[in-house]
Amino acid sequence: AKKLGRGRVEVFSAQMKAQLNNERRFGKQCARGLEKGEFIPYYQAQVDARTRRIVGIEVLARWHHPKRGLLQPAEFIEIAGNLGMLDDLDAAILKAALKDRRAWIRQGVRVPRIAVNVSAARLSDPLLVDELQRLDIEPDTLSFELLETIFLDNSEDGVLANVAGLKAMGIDIEIDDFGSGHASIIGLMKLKPRRMKIDRQLVLPITTSREQKRLMRSIVDIAKALDIEVIAEGVETLEHAKLLTRLGCDILQGYAIAYPVPAADMLARLTQTQEL
Ligand code: C2E
Ligand code: CA
Ligand code: CA
Ligand code: CA
């Protein structure tokens, strides 16, 4: 038994070593990628549910990896988080998106609000507001998407202080993936977000389940009671889009509306028409 135990320990530590080496290699690549501007924003349009005009654009990170090609967030966000690099990645994506937006404005198009994803690490950084104030951001047309788990690993006071600072700058707070994790009414009341995005797991079944449809209506009612605008995400069919509009959702986002696209395609979209 002793032998077996030792063997196990060795196997385990060999695995751990391999994993550590992998993470270390990944960390180096990631740091270099950040330096070289390999992380770039993709853009997914959001439309007003009634008019179908583009009223927002979510910024989604992609990694142009020199060897592996274009990587999706599923392949790097979590590891970057484990390595403590997600705050730097968020900062790099925000800067790149602001640069794209300035270029679009120079082209003469009307650019709607852009929404960036902000990790808990970045939101709890006490220097965040100072740092943003030094950027050229036109905060009135910027939103930060925060996960509803934001209070879990962070000091509530730190989070709320930053949220207050962001709002004072004119940056909108939005709760992302509402209903997928630790959705709480108290949390909503503390953060007082401008908008909430209802998770696509709650959106998908509304066309096939009466119960889920009623639930969606109730969530919209709660949001309305708290003066929060509702964005439905994961809108994959026109049937969903119609029903969500009927249930009172304000803004729609999903493949039925538009796919995430690179900056040049987004500009083309904005130039052609603001209706989808
Ligand atoms: P998210 O914030 O919930 O973003 C929405 C995700 O759903 C995106 O995946 C988007 O491409 C995808 N999506 C959009 N419409 C539909 C649809 O109709 N159906 C389905 N099935 N999916 C749809 P993506 O781009 O792979 O991003 C995944 C996650 O990675 C994001 O989820 C977000 O949590 C995270 N992420 C992406 N970019 C950043 C970033 O710059 N910073 C941070 N901290 N996280 C990011
Ligand atoms: Ca860091
Ligand atoms: Ca998001
Ligand atoms: Ca989301």
From TrEMBL:
This is Diguanylate cyclase. Residues 23-274 form the EAL domain. The chain holds residues 307 to 582 of 586 of the full protein. It comes from the Bacteria.
